[in-house]
Amino acid sequence: MRLIKEEIRLKGLPICRGIAIGKPFFFHLTENNIPHYAIEKENVEKEVLRYREALAKARDDIICLKKELGKEHVVEGVQILDAELQMMQDPLLTEDIEDEIRSRASNAESIFQETIDRFQKRFEMITDPLFQERFKDIQDIAKRVLSYLLEKSTVSLSDVPPESIVFAKELTTADIAEANHSCVLAFVSHFGGSTSHAAIVAKAKGIPYVTSIEYEPIESFKDSSVILDGRTGEIIVNPDDETLALYQALKEELDAHRITLRKMQNLPPETYDGYKIGLSANVESLAEIEMLHRFGGHGVGLFRSEFAFPSERNFPSEEDQFALYSSVVKQMAGRPIVIRTFDVGGDKFLGNELIAPESNPYLGCRAIRFLLKESGLFKAQLRAILRASVDGNVSIMFPMISSLQELLEVKGVIHQVQEELVKQYDAIPSRIRIGCMIEVPSAALICDLLAKECDFMAIGTNDLIQYALAVDRGNHLLSGLYAPTHPGVIRLIKLIVHEANKHCIPVSVCGEIAADPRFTALLLGLGVHELSIAARYIPEIKNTIRHTSIIYAKKLAEKALLLSTAQEILDLIHEEYRLHFPNDIFYNV
Ligand code: PEP
Ligand code: MG
Predict the structure, then answer these.
(1) What is the CATH number of domain 267-580?
(2) How far is the CA of 342 from the centre of ligand 2 (A)?
(3) What spacing in Å lies between the alpha carbon of 78 and ligand 2's midpoint?
């Protein structure tokens, strides 16, 4: 008889679009960080062996310890260890666990931990202090066995079973960065906002992601199938045959749509009434330059230098930076690249000893504030960029500028570094283009003053929204308040673009809204003529640009500017998108 399992539906916050159908992998799931995952049938015996070895090693430890205590004549200790050794031969900890690994095809540490938890529950019911003592012995055994199991177990996302949908309480940028794309089909977490850096990395890798999901209710379904709909934020556990067939068809349709979009790789990003738009890529590593070429990006509009180096603990040396920037610049073969100086603090590089813990890190010593304080580090980075710029078309950009004073100070440091370099090297450029990120409302309000002192501007809407609306971009509980269509945000963008155009300096948008096609017409209508987005979204945005006229975009922006609430503007752009792109099942949900 076939066991009918009930279909369970959970609703979270969609972060990265896409459909995934796979098996759950519970990452850092319990308080003890015990991973829970399914084992392929053909690897089950290996898993049993792994458990046996861990138990044997723990036994060897106890035997050694017993010998030591024996030499020191600690009789009581020897007795305790004897009892532990006996317990380790108990079928409950040997055959029973091995049988369970086989029958449930689950990893050893999860089965082992469950057995220990069952012991604990039984012992808790017995008030006799003798039994309580025996439980301490079991805990000691458990600690030892688990430490051996975890030593070799899959606790890093670089090595998870194929077809995994990773469930976690929280995912860090590093977790997502190291996730093996061919095995991790999707992410689900409890915490995390839509423009957190972890989310940005998931989007850059094109891995569907849903947050605001409490995974505990489905923890016991580790062998079930799961569907994740990154468009709606829905998670379906144990889908029935009808649901499964529906999502398989949808996934095929989305894959086919992507392939069609890729065909426009060599067409220019211009509106159908001939208005040219700059379309560049946000890049975080040397490897992503290849993606930029593959997806038809013109240049790099934002190189997030803080993510390009392997260690979050140490800042790279000038030479290491020079080597990497040179490779990137050479691979760009004369096409423009904007290198942003380290944007650390906030939620980035927190493991670094130079980043002091702060009660309010996003309002603290972040980005340019940190670099101006750590002038040695700042100069080393500027030297590396300037040296690498000899081989290509490089500009430098500064994150989180909040006053003219700050920009002038930065320019002073560049000048100083340039003078030093000219004495050491032949070909250092006497001038490099410099840009300001406009991410703080004060910078937006004085962008006429900033425009006179820089060569270009980039609107970092991820932060601009956070700072304008006083809403933490990483807090999923505030996701309803993090509103890119808030009239305050739209007016700020309009103001920045207006001032930049008046001062004849280019301005781009490089926050996440630039990669959402429902925002494209609104941004073009507000006067933005350059967008910088994760490389894989270039075909989609190019398609949207090519199906939009600048006259229509202007009218849409005018309408939006007359509306009073974020919801009204959101409804307007969604409805307009639906009318213009009725067949886009990716965004019209
Ligand atoms: C932004 O804030 O919009 C931006 C592009 O920078 P980051 O997301 O790296 O803070
Ligand atoms: Mg930013």
Answers:
(1) 3.20.20.60
(2) 11
(3) 60
